[in-house]
Amino acid sequence: MADKLKRYTIFILLMIGLVFLGIGCTGTKYNEGPSPAEKTPAGTKGIFLKGSDTVLPLAQAEAEEFMIENPGKSVTVTGGGSGVGIAALIDGEVDIAAASREMKTNEIEAAKANGISPVEHTIAYDGISVVVNPSNPVSELTFGQLRGIYNGSISNWKEVGGEDRPIVVISRDSSSGTYEYFKEAVLLGDEYRPEALTQPATGGVVGEVSQNPNAIGYIGVAYLDKSIKSLSLDAGKGPEAPTSKNIISGAYPLSRPLYFYTNGEPTGLTKEFINFVMSETGQNLVSEVGYFPVNK
Fold first, then answer.
1. Any idea where the domains of the chain sit in the sequence?
2. Gyration radius from the chain CA atoms
3. How far apart are CA 175 and CA 190, in angstroms?
4. Residue 169 in contact with residue 196, Cβ under 8 Å?
5. 120 in helix, strand or coil?
6. How many Cα neighbours within 13 Å face the side chain of 182?
7. Which of 245, 229, 246, 228 is nearest to 237 (CA)?
8. CA–CA separation, 214 vs 149, rounded Å?
9. Residues 287, 126: contact at Cβ < 8 Å?
10. Closest to 259 measured CA to CA, from 101, 95, 81
């Protein structure tokens, strides 16, 4: 009886050991993580798009609708600024660079030196809205006044018909295509005033202006909301508001194209996505987001 009990006890202990050994092996495999095949399901196709914060809400909307209509195909969209997206294209890190300005000559040269052949695609049109806090009584500026505010020669709102308050100038940072466009179109070769507060994203400009009654900034019209007030601009033909009619007609002076850049003529999924953006469905999304279709 004692021998049988002893043998039974040894058997139970061996079985318990095997169970714990199995658990330990299973745990080791789990900690190693899934295999690459498990991380990327078979048949999944994807492209990467990076760049302009102005283009970002449009690119996100287009990607979401494209993926709904094309299950199993992926479009990953991130912002960071036109310069960031173009740099990523030059380095071969993305399939599409989104930009709110044209590529510069030195960027095209750097791309070609790296074996990249940039091809430009105009996907929509945009207007740049100059914005102030809703409490600011100023409702319009001439181009000369706007230039003076941003180059530092005008520093008080009373100089442009407002109250006796200092002007707080908000700008995008230098990686932004909007920064480059505004500098070229408004400052006409002048430098931004040194004390201008820079924001890395459009949302930062909106936030600062909405909270500061003395602030002024510039953003893409798609970002306009009730927390800020857009100004009419007079470039010599009378003040014009950044309405869709004025932007499409060219009456509003701060209008520009928005771009996708690819390495060579697009192929495969990149071509499919750009064709979708340029389709009737894609261009309707352009209008829904707050920009202006290229076919109008």
1. 46-125+257-289, 126-255
2. 28
3. 18
4. yes
5. strand
6. 25
7. 246
8. 12
9. no
10. 101
The pLDDT confidence band at residue 89, using thresholds 50, 70 and 90, is very high
Question: Do 46-125+257-289 and 126-255 show the same overall fold?
Answer: yes
pTM above 0.90, yes or no: no
Give me the sign of the Cα torsion angle 219, 270, 65, 79. Answer: negative
What residues contact 52, with CB distance under 8 A and at least 6 apart? 79, 81, 82, 85, 98, 99, 100, 176, 177, 178, 258
- CA 91 vs. chain centroid, Å, equals 19
Give dist(CA 280, CA 276) in Å, integer.
8
pLDDT digits (tens, 9 = 90+) for 233-247: 998 888 999 988 888
For the beta sheet containing 232-234, the strands, ordered from the edge strand earlier in sequence to the opposite edge, are 140-142, 232-234, 239-240
Q: Would the CA dihedral through 125, 128, 134, 140 be positive or negative?
A: negative
Q: In the chain, what is the straight-line distance between the N-terminal and C-terminal CA atoms, in Å?
A: 97
Q: Give the DSSP per-residue string, 177-223.
A: HHHHHHIIIIITTPPPPTTPEEESSHHHHHHHHHH-TTEEEEEEGGG
Q: How confident is the model over 93-129, as pLDDT tens digits?
A: 999 999 999 999 999 999 999 999 999 999 999 999 9
From 107, 95, 103, select the one nearest 122 (Cα to Cα). Answer: 103
Exposed/middle/buried for residue 209 (C-beta within 10 Å: 0-12, 13-18, 19+): buried
Say yes or no to pLDDT of 284 above 90. Answer: yes
46-125+257-289 sits in which CATH class?
Answer: alpha beta
Residue ranges of alpha helices (H) inside the chain are 2-32, 36-39, 56-69, 82-90, 105-113, 143-151, 177-182, 202-211, 244-249, 268-278, 280-289
- Kindly report the CATH class assigned to 126-255: alpha beta
